[in-house]
Design goal:
heterodimer, A: four-stranded antiparallel sheet, B: 115 residues, mainly beta, five-stranded antiparallel sheet
């Protein structure tokens, strides 16, 4: 499945580093999402963009900063992260927000380790 | 508001045996219901969804699920497990207002298939 791609696939960073995660969707969708997947916890919705406008921010710490320059690209800028931020970060897209009338298409994720 | 509960974080079956993964939901409005699968090192992929109409829904890879309103359940089944079915399975629910209803995921059930 190459509809949604994410880079890098793996990232190790120190707590003082700044890095960015990239997501690109080739499906012509209007909504894009960042999810955090941690062991033994439900998927956590972080941000939702609809037509390049942020429509949801679920109380995510400011050390995570999203950017959506166009409907095909989504970034997650990271700075001064904590070890508990280590997780799999999943990007997804859908034709409409929240996928209530259609499925979410997920990328393979970026496995982030904060040391 | 919606919520979803997946009973059993791990399920083990023998190859060829019946697969049954349980999902119960809570919703104040008629829900949309989904099952997603996540193979190792990949993102989530839609297996099947229920929106309206027939309560028995067929998905990919021989899986199906039945919406039972009286039991508030949407259990996933497959008559005969294959080794390639080993993965993590997520049930999800949303309401029907795509402007306000969020897609809520369960905590997942890891399926192991033994030869």
């Amino acid at each position: 499945e190459t509809g949604v791609t994410q880079t890098p696939r793996h990232l190790v960073m120190g707590m003082t580093n700044k890095k960015s995660l990239k997501c690109e969707q080739h499906l012509g969708h209007n909504a894009m999402y960042w999810y955090k997947q941690s062991a033994k916890k439900p998927l956590e919705l972080m941000f939702v963009y609809s037509l390049e406008e942020r429509v949801e921010n679920n109380s995510v710490p400011s050390r995570f900063s999203p950017e959506c320059p166009n409907s095909s690209h989504l970034f997650l800028h990271l700075h001064t992260l904590q070890p508990e931020d280590s997780a799999l970060y999943l990007c997804a897209s859908s034709q409409e927000p929240h996928g209530s009338r259609g499925p979410l298409y997920f990328g393979p994720g970026t496995r982030l380790t904060v040391t | 508001a919606q919520s979803v509960t997946q009973l059993g974080s791990h399920v083990s079956v023998s190859e060829g045996a019946l697969v049954l993964l349980r999902c119960n939901y809570s919703s104040s409005v008629p829900p949309y219901l989904f099952w997603y699968v996540q193979y190792p090192n990949q993102g989530l992929q839609l297996l099947l969804k229920y929106t309206t109409g027939a309560t028995l829904v067929k998905g990919i890879n021989g899986f199906e699920a039945e919406f039972k309103k009286s039991e508030t359940s949407f259990h996933l089944t497959k008559p005969s497990a294959h080794m390639s079915d080993a993965a993590e399975y997520f049930c999800a629910v949303t309401g029907r207002s795509y402007n306000t209803d969020k897609l809520i995921f369960g905590t997942g059930t890891r399926l192991q298939v033994f030869p």
